[in-house]
Amino acid sequence: MTTWTDFLSGEGATLDDNFVSFGDATAEAAALATGTLAVPLLHLGLVQSTGPDSAAYLHNLFSNDVNKLPAGSAQWNSFNSPKGRMLASFLLWREEDGHSLLMSADILPAMHKKLSMYILRSKVKLADASATRALIGLAGAKLGACLEAAGLPFPAADMQESLADGIRIVRIGAEAAIAVVDADAAPDLFRRIRAAGAIPAGTNAWHLAMVRAGVPLVTSATQEEFVAQMLNYDLIGGISFQKGCYPGQEIVARTKYLGKLKKRMYRVSIAAESAPTAGADLYSPAFGDQSAGKLVNVAALGDGSFEALAVMQNSCAEDGDVHLGAPDGPALAVLDLPYALP
């Protein structure tokens, strides 16, 4: 346990590995539409890249244009296998002496090790900063007002950041942001945000916010399953098609230029007796016993229903007859995303 996790336990949170719960998923889901949630993001971790060659080093490995990332800005990015399959999805922003990479905590140790293998003679150091930096997700319809009440600057536009009093706010949408702060200062920041009207909420609430925003998170269950465009990374600004080579670039480029993509990521609802899990297979009559797609991320609504991001054959989504786990499993209903699919 750490000072931060000890504090959360004292605030009534239940911690199960990296999953945080405050016990009322139904109320948290409702609060997304009416207020602001404050979520300890223990399921995410930070890798920091420092040194004069940080931008060039990361640029040569990732799907987006790190070299052209302006100061005060962030970007979605991915690290891919040579076959173009996503090994990690992450949020990347500039720091004074390099960059930070926010990714799923369950893949971070392996990604840290793998990325370190590419340093060679570059003047770069990689470090796992998960223990020294705390992450608090802020989401909901009154996010801007909550930050103002807390005396924290809300960045003017999506994918921009602000920095004040050692607290970094990275805005990832009109109703979602991530606060990054030294771990020792996290309890005070959490109290400050609560005093401004935010409601403490668990990991599931953040998953729900991201599902509704159409922002996927690659975890150990879905590594190497998807080409970036299947996760709509081209639609949320996670791919540059003008930059030079990087691992998997040929496949990612070919997917763009050689005809319509057959699979895309959709937002879906599911009514199921047990919680669906990331990586679970989807089925459709047109494909018989063959998998037609997979779940990416799942969030419970607290009433026995779930919302999820799911990659599936476009034709199956259009037919609307898709089932979880087996051809006769629970039915999925396709919901709207906040952006249009091609």
TrEMBL record:
It holds the Pfam family GCV_T. InterPro entries: GcvT/YgfZ_C, GCVT_N, TrmE/GcvT-like, YgfZ/GCV_T_CS, YgfZ/GcvT. The keyword Transit peptide applies. The keyword Mitochondrion does not apply. Keywords: Transit peptide. Coiled coil: none annotated. This is Folate-binding protein YgfZ. It comes from Parazoarcus communis. GO terms for biological process: iron-sulfur cluster assembly. Residues 25-225 form the GCVT N-terminal domain.
